[in-house]
Amino acid sequence: MTVIPNFDDDATDRKFVIICSKGNLDMAYPALVLANAALGEGIETHLFFTFWGFDMIIDSRMDDLQFSPAGNTSMHFPVKDKTIRVPQAMMPLPGMTGMATKMLKEQLDAMDIPPVRDFLDQIVASGGHLWGCQMSADMNKVDMDDLYEGVADIINASDFMEKTDGAQLLFI
Amino acid sequence: MAKATIAGKEVTVNEEGFLTEYDEWDEEVGTELAKNIDVEMTDEHWALIKWLREDYKETGETATTRRVNTTGGVPTKQQFTLFPKKPAKKMSYVAGLPKPKGCV
C-alpha cells in the first residue's frame, strides 16, 4: 500500500496569534520566523504590534531596528566552543549598538534571512494578517499613513480579543 | 526505508511517503505524487518542480519557500496558489525531495 503524507488541509483549524511588543532587532525575528513557519503549515496567523513592537511596522523605523548588547549576558562572539565576551561595562560605549546591529544584520543576511520589511512582505504574501495597536498608534502619534503598507488596520484591545477567539497566543 | 509502487515503478519512500532516492523520480512518478495530494499539474507547476530538483542537485538541500521566491523567481503568493496551504511540503513531495530543513 502506498503511504501518502497527510497534509491535513481541511483539518487545520489552528489559529496562531503573536503579540510583538519589542522593537529590538533581535526580538523582532522570533515572531517573524514563527509566523512564517505557521503560514507554511496552513495555519491562520495574526501578528499584533504593540508598544515597542510598533517600531516593526512604522514605515520610517522598521528598516532601522537596532540590537544592543548592553545588559545581555548571552552576548558573545559567534565562535564555536569558545565563549568570548566583551565586558558589560564596555557595552554602553558609543558605537557599540551600531556595531552589534551591523554584525547581526550581516549574520542574518549570510543565512538568507530577510530584513524586517522583506520578511513582513513574505508573511503578508503568505496570507498573514498584521494589526497595529490603537494605543501605541496614539502614543506614537501615527496613523495608517505612517505604517507599513501590509498592515490591515489599527485595532483596539476589544477588537483584539474578538479576533483572537480560540487562538493560540504567543507574547514576545 | 519502505518500498512503494508509484506509476508502476518501485520507489523507496520514508515513513511519511516522501521519496528518498533522487534518481528514482521521473515525471510520471511526479504526476502520480501530485494526484495523491489533489494537485493537478500545469506547466507552471512543472517549471517550479524542475527548478526545485535542479536546485537540490546543486545545493544538496531542498529550497525553502523563501529561496523559491528569491532564487527560483516564483513569488510567495504564487507558490500558495500552485500548492495550497503547505507549499514547501507539497512541492518537495511532488519533486521527490526531502522536506526543506531551513526555518525560513
Give keywords.
heterodimer; A: 172 residues; alpha/beta; 5-stranded parallel sheet; 5 helices; 5 strands; globular; B: 104 residues; mainly alpha; two-stranded antiparallel sheet
What does the secondary structure layout of this molecule look like, with pairings?
The complex is a heterodimer of chains A (172) and B (104).
Chain A: E1 15-20, H1 25-40, E2 44-49, H2 96-110, H3 116-125, E3 129-133, H4 134-140, E4 151-155, H5 157-163, E5 168-171
Parallel strand pairs in A: 1-2, 1-5, 2-3, 3-4
Helix pairs in contact in A: 1-3
Chain B: E1 2-6, E2 9-13, H1 27-36, H2 43-59, H3 65-70, H4 76-82, H5 87-94
Antiparallel strand pairs in B: 1-2
Walkthrough of the structure:
The complex is a heterodimer of chains A (172) and B (104). Chain A is of the alpha/beta class and 172 residues long. Helices cover 32% and strands 15% of the residues of chain A. Chain A contains five helices and five strands. A five-stranded parallel β-sheet of chain A has the order 4-3-2-1-5. In chain A, helix 1 runs parallel beside helix 3. Chain A is globular and about 55 Å long. Helix content of chain B is 46%, strand content 10%. The mean pLDDT of chain B is 92. Chain B has a two-stranded antiparallel sheet. Chain B is built from five helices and two strands, in the order ββααααα. With 104 residues, chain B is mainly alpha-helical. The longest helix of chain B is centred in the middle third of the chain and has 17 residues, at 43-59. Chain B starts with a strand and ends in a 10-residue tail after the last helix. In chain B, a hairpin with a 2-residue loop joins strand 1 (2-6) and strand 2. Chain B has helices spanning 27-36, 43-59, 65-70, 76-82, 87-94; strands at residues 2-6, 9-13. Classes of the chains: A alpha/beta (172), B mainly alpha (104). Chains A and B meet through helix 1 and helix 3 of A and strand 1, helix 3, helix 4 and helix 5 of B.
